[in-house]
Design a protein that fits this description.
The protein has about 140 residues and is mainly alpha-helical.
């Protein structure tokens, strides 16, 4: 199994550290540099696991208070807004009227409002609810 996961971001999780060790951890460390040892029953080692996951995913510099794009729909909204703003800049540079530029800016605002949920078309609502099971 270790050979199958080489060159992938992996954290080896060694549980039951409160019991007698039956494996060679040094051998695992040779192949997998990120290791978290914990005892799930005692609730120990969770911080180490979090640290290893943050390190392997390069999350150390992530500002948790800043916004995060959580799914494909949101990514598409941001990309579309950016593309529309580029079109607005090009229109402005080409000497188009401010009314024409404003049309592009309004479209970008609509994309961002869709991202935040402040403007939700039927297509967006259908897309969101297609991913959730809504019970009675």
């Amino acid at each position: 199994m270790i050979d199958q996961i080489k060159d992938r971001p992996v954290v080896a999780v060694i549980n039951k550290t409160d019991l007698e060790r039956k494996m060679d951890i040094e051998q695992i460390k040779e192949k997998i540099p990120h290791i978290a040892q914990l005892s799930a029953s005692a609730g120990e080692g969770v911080e180490e696991l979090e640290t290893q996951v943050r390190e392997i995913l390069n999350l150390a510099q992530l500002d948790s208070s800043s916004g995060i794009i959580a799914n494909e729909r949101q990514r598409a909204c941001v990309e579309e807004a950016a593309k529309t703003m580029e079109q607005a800049q090009q229109a402005l540079q080409m000497g188009e009227t401010l009314d024409a530029v404003n049309v592009c800016i309004d479209a970008a605002i609509d994309d961002l409002l869709e991202l935040t949920g402040e403007r939700a078309s039927e297509a967006v609502i259908d897309q969101v609810f297609a991913r959730f099971c809504v019970g009675k």
